[in-house]
């Protein structure tokens, strides 16, 4: 029982809590001994859709192939069907599906901040795969500032998970997509 307060008194009668104030009385039917426990599943934050950006060069055959592969993977990941449709969908239902992602294909070069982030993702050892002839991040930023064409496209970036796949190696890009958290 709580200490006496002039405008507030709690009384227990027949396992019901009665709260009396100076003006009103309220009857609560909840058993005071059974404290409500917050559910651990009360709030569920949904995973945001991953964003994959492809820095694309339309005149590069490798970049065109990578863009087509990413478009196809994006379409397959977002594809859904219902069971009441006329055809049999057991193969699609049983297949391992990639998580859905948002594909952003741009021919514009990355901003300086985006390039810094990309270079952080790849690490010092692979800076040269992003910017031609660069040995470290400072040199890559300098070369890119002098000539944006020094960026070796295509470059696919998974911004949410901090991964980069550069060049025409489609298997590396597809591996990056397969590694997306579900």
From TrEMBL:
Subcellular location as annotated: Mitochondrion
Pfam family of the protein (one): DUF1687
Main localization, broad class: mitochondrion
InterPro entries to which the protein is assigned, alphabetical: Fmp46, Thioredoxin-like_sf
Region (Disordered): 21-40, 77-98
Cellular-component GO terms for this entry: mitochondrion
Record has Oxidoreductase as a keyword: yes
Listed Polar residues bias regions: 21-37
Keywords of this entry: Mitochondrion, Oxidoreductase, Transit peptide
Single GO MF annotation: oxidoreductase activity
Functional description taken from the UniProt entry: Putative mitochondrial redox protein which could be involved in the reduction of small toxic molecules.
Record-stated family: Belongs to the FMP46 family.
PANTHER family: REDOX PROTEIN FMP46, MITOCHONDRIAL-RELATED
Protein's recorded name: Thioredoxin-like protein
